[in-house]
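WARN retry 2 of 3 for item q-0093 after timeout on previous attempt; input resubmitted unchanged.
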Amino acid sequence: MGSHRINDLDSVFKTLRSIPDKCPCSFDSGNVCGCCSKLEELDREIVETLSNLTEKRRILMAKINQNHDPYIHQLPSEIASQIFLFYRDINCPPAQETADPFPYIDPFRSLLQVASVCKTWREIMFATPELWTSINIFSYSISIPLHAELAEQWLDRAGALPLSITVYCNQSSLSDDTVHPDDLAPLFEVLRRHSARWRELTLYIPMDFYPCFQGDLSSAPILEVFRLLPSEEYTTHSHRLILTDTPRLVNLEISFPRLVDIMPQWGGLTHFEAEAVSVEEILYLLRMAPSLVRCIAGGVNDMPAFGIPDHPITHPSLKEFHFAPFHDLSAGSTLFDKMVLPVLDHFVYTAPEVPLRFPMAALYSLFNRSQSPLTHFTLIDLGLSGQFNDTGVIGLLETVRTITCLEIMEFEPFPDDVPPPAPPIRSKHLLQWIQLQERNFEIESCSPPGITVIRKRSDMD
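OK item q-0093 returned
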């Protein structure tokens, strides 16, 4: 029955849309004939009647929603708010946790569609500030002016609560490939007005959009997590996004921007991750961020930045250091010679996909100089360089006596349907050495192929 009503309404609207805008009679005489005049009057009457009936229908549908949904209407609003919060957490995860860095589902729609179910739901949701503290903006899904308007309303509903903001803007995904950064100025202006409440800020935008995004902004007083992950690869063009007043920043993640083009407050930083960073930038970071606990340095290169210090830098807090050199890095040994890491507990080395000399001597010197309590050492070989063999593993365990867990990951570019071969690290030579050790090392069996873990027995008890 309901489908028949909808079809009838569709036919009415189709008929109204088929009526010409101008009376055919007027083309000849310039005057409207009597029949056409009556038709125009009837059309106006139909539109007015439909408007009145639509309002009556809306009121009736609200009553039907109340009768057909007794649960939400009978629950205290506080409990209903919690239900909506659970829904948001399940259906609207933070953008950085999604598998696809540029998903095609507009997160604006999810919560707003729920809020459009009925007036009661909308009132409860709009009165729950916690629902609106996280916003993911995808600039290719709807027009920029509408983005700006929705973002303003969305962030205003969050009241005075801290905000988590993610902005996606990929040139190739925009409808107009020649879009100018200034086209996004209205949206960026809305976001800047709320900068005092930024707690997390993630920008997947081209680097040449940075000046437009920044505007006159220099302060984000409660910003704790800052991610700059431009969609394009590294470029020699310098585009800065400098927030000098970030006293609460603890986590910084970047892909291709250089540190000199960011320059936040380093004093409270505890976690740093970069997809491309130079040796000089790492040393500068160690000097400027004394609270740093975890550093993931990928694509380490020789690009000049701040210069090499004359004396080694002693860092009092760094416990975990990931080092993945670029294939033509020549200053890797220089980096290790200029560091002293007295509390380092976990070191991760990722070999490049092309042969590069493993800086074993420089690493031994670093560990010996630091006298750190290093217990975990992870070697990641992409399967093309073949750098890690039994001799190197034995030498590492004999030299760095504090290691209790050595993890070797060897990955080969095999098709998904072809399992990689068993790791070659488990040789008779290595097994004999392990059996002779007083420290009772043993090879731990691992379910993922290509992974070997050598661990002290005392750690496994």
